[in-house]
Amino acid sequence: MGPGIFKGCTIRELSLLKSYLLENRRSYVSGALLLAGTSFFALSIPWLLKLAVESIRSPGQAGHSPAWYGGTIIVAAILHGIIRIFSRTTLLHAARRIEFSIRERMYDRLQQLDLAFFDQERTGDILSRFANDLTNVRMLVGFGVLNIINTLLVYAAALVLMCSLSPLLTLFAILPFPLMIFVVKRISASMFRRSRHAQEELAKLTSTVEENVSAAAVIKAYCREQAAIASFTAVSAGYMKSNMRIAQLRGLMIPVMAATGALGTLIVMVMGGGQVVAGKLTLGDFVAFNGYLAMLIWPTIMMGWILNLMQRGAASMERLNRILQAEAAVREPEHPAVVSRVDGRIELHKLCFSYGGKPLLSDISLVIPAGSRLGIVGPVGAGKTTLVRLLARLYPVADGAIFIDGIDINAVPLATLRRFIGFVPQESFLFSRSIAANIAFGSSGTADEDVRRAAALASLHTDVEQFPEGYASMVGERGITLSGGQKQRAAIARALLKGGSILILDDPLSAVDAATEKEILTALAQEYGARTVIIVSHRLSALRDCDSIIYLDEGRIVEQGSHQELLRLGGRYAALHREQELRAEIAAP
Length: 589
Known about the structure:
There is one protein chain. By secondary structure, the chain is an alpha/beta fold. It has helices spanning 11-15, 18-23, 25-57, 66-112, 115-120, 123-165, 167-173, 177-214, 216-221, 225-277, 283-324, 384-391, 414-419, 435-439, 448-457, 461-465, 484-498, 514-527, 563-569, 572-587, and strands at residues 346-355, 358-368, 373-377, 402-404, 407-408, 421-424, 502-506, 532-536, 548-553, 556-561. A six-stranded mixed beta sheet has the order 6-7-8-3-9-10, sandwiched between helices. A four-stranded antiparallel beta sheet has the order 2-1-4-5, with helices on one face. Strand 1 and strand 2 (358-368) form a beta hairpin. The longest helix has 53 residues, at 225-277. Mean pLDDT is 82; it is low at 1-9.
């Protein structure tokens, strides 16, 4: 089968497996040698049958008795079975190691990628690649490679032996094979496209399940169970349809290959039988020839399975390569600056930022002195979260736009920069671990007393003490056992425990009540010390004590000053302050 047959499966995608195969070349060479031994004993059996038949027809001329040949056949069969076990385990273990290696490299790559990548990918799709796509690749480099080697060995040896018995009969036996090659070549490209589409449909299915399970509380609260079921049914039907289309091709391919072998057998029976009757071919040669032809039937059928496996493996490898070959937009500096400490002075010079062609920040110029507090407020979509994320280089920043202690932020190694920044994101994420482990996530070798102190500063200690297992209590997936306010306070405690010269709080108190907010702000004010603190909040009470406050709107700074200065200005900040005071008066008992 020439390279044209595999044109549809994109050799480029499969060629990317070359490095992994080379890493395990010893196992593959050993497996190939063991398969050669397996094929040797399998191919020796028809030849021994030939000799056994001839010893029965001509007892005096045979070298050994029929019983001796029978015993030799049994020994060959046993050795064939034993070596077959070792050949399969050797190759399949290599496939498992390749799967492990790809999984490790994928996870390592994911840790290096930035938010821009994850903003464009669905969690369920990524999980599908780690599970289903990796399984397809493992099957290809395991069972696929095993059967490719075995098929090549059996075909080469069997055809040589068949030609030694009767070249003419061999020629007629393989006449149907060009038809098989033609059909397979036509099906190949379609198989790859359908396999890739099936994997994408499976990714949608995984994403739908992951999303609906995560949103179970919302679905039940809004009585959307039936809608969720209908949505899942539609996605599941799409996945089934794509697999049925693959099954149709496979259902066409395998019978064609089986018919090829059957037609070859029929030709041999007709022509070979005539040659035996005419005395041109001995009965033993005829038996051996049919034995070798029978051995070609299963490898011929396996070609269809191998081809299908190659198409699915190539489609899956293409999807895996979207992670393996993805490049982070935020990169380490080519000539990193040596930074031993950070005081926390931040300067922004005409900072602009666009995402997906949409401008989010425009001409932001600002100086934040070391040890000062900056408040950021503005309507939804004003660019507040984008701005603080840029300070931690979670998104790419243009050179000369942000400076920390006079050093361009792009010249500071990422690990160094983020080590000096405590960051509380807008959406507080907790891992499925204990409360103590979540608080200590950003710090290593943290003492229990330090964890408790950080929790107390975030007004979380009293709540934790009421849990049956205290700080050892498991928070469940995504912190489901905690309230929204408790999750936010745990995230604040995590940032405080980490330390750092710069503390960024991205709307950290949106889920707590006014009394708890006041308690947390009072405790934090005593803890800020010499840190540079940046607070994003829609509640002006959280920004009242800031040294400077900026009001963002449509990615621009429209007002700037202290709390009192902005009130005297009588602009948007003052209007928002009046609105919030009025709401507080209405809500008061």
